[in-house]
Design brief:
Length: about 260
């Protein structure tokens, strides 16, 4: 028994909006999610430059990272409601693609929206060619955002466990936007929700909000200079990196 999952026309339009795609492919200081998306974009550029062959964007949204690939074929898969798809995702069922039909599967910020992640990962394994590549990113500590649902978060240890259980060898795993850089991004996402009444702290937060709005691009450039060591971190247990907004995995299929 499976439940149909769809995105609304409004959600589909938002994901395919030119400004939304640009914020991921070419993030600019001043944009709301700049700190985290610029970190993800930097790593995506490094990883995709070595990928060729047949690529599946599994949970594609607007496919913002497609221009980074050098591919022979690029297939797009998502739930009902998105446009220009090669495959429709039906939760609980394998994708309608043959075994070993892709050399690389890209999954960016998708797994947290999947009701049965082990089933999704097993399907990735099925569709990849022998020794094929899985590039997967998902969230660590990040506000939930249902499009249309948001089910879970991972630690690096938990994500490594789940990907290896699906038959992959994890080549490398990274924490994205860690420590103070993560704190800055989370503060930015919540600064308008901090109460501004009372003295002196309410006044301080009101002043901080005004300055933040006026100086956000400059502040982001400052953060890039001062928190560069907290952008992309090889999986680390160091206390400075125990808070992280995202995780990126580079894995290879182990043939069964």
């Amino acid at each position: 028994m499976h439940q149909e999952q769809t995105v609304t026309s409004k959600e589909a339009t938002a994901m395919a909006d030119a400004a939304e795609l640009k914020s991921r492919l070419q993030p600019s200081p001043g944009e709301r999610f700049y700190l985290h998306l610029s970190d993800l974009r930097q790593l995506m550029g490094d990883l995709t430059s070595h990928v060729t062959g047949r690529v599946l964007d599994y949970g594609c949204g607007g496919s913002p990272y497609r221009p980074l690939f050098k591919y022979d074929a690029y297939a797009r898969a998502d739930v009902v409601g998105m446009t220009d798809l090669d495959h429709i995702i039906t939760p609980g069922l394998p994708l309608d693609a043959p075994d070993r039909s892709f050399d690389c599967i890209l999954s960016t910020q998708v797994l947290e929206h999947v009701a049965a992640p082990q089933q999704y990962l097993a399907d990735c394994h099925r569709m990849l060619s022998d020794s094929g590549t899985l590039l997967l990113s998902t969230h660590g500590t990040f506000p939930d955002h249902s499009v249309p649902w948001d089910f879970q978060r991972w630690t690096t240890n938990g994500l490594r466990r789940d990907i290896e259980a699906a038959g992959f060898k994890v080549e490398k795993i990274w924490k994205l936007t860690t420590g103070p850089r993560a704190v800055i991004q989370l503060l930015e996402l919540n600064i308008d929700r901090i109460p501004g009444g009372g003295f002196p702290f309410g006044l301080l937060f009101r002043v901080l909000r005004v300055l933040w709005r006026k100086m956000t691009p400059a502040f982001h450039r400052w953060a890039d200079q001062r928190t560069g060591g907290f952008r992309l971190v090889d999986d680390s247990e160091h206390q400075h990196h125990r808070l992280y907004l995202g995780i990126m995995v580079h894995a290879r299929k182990i043939p069964r």
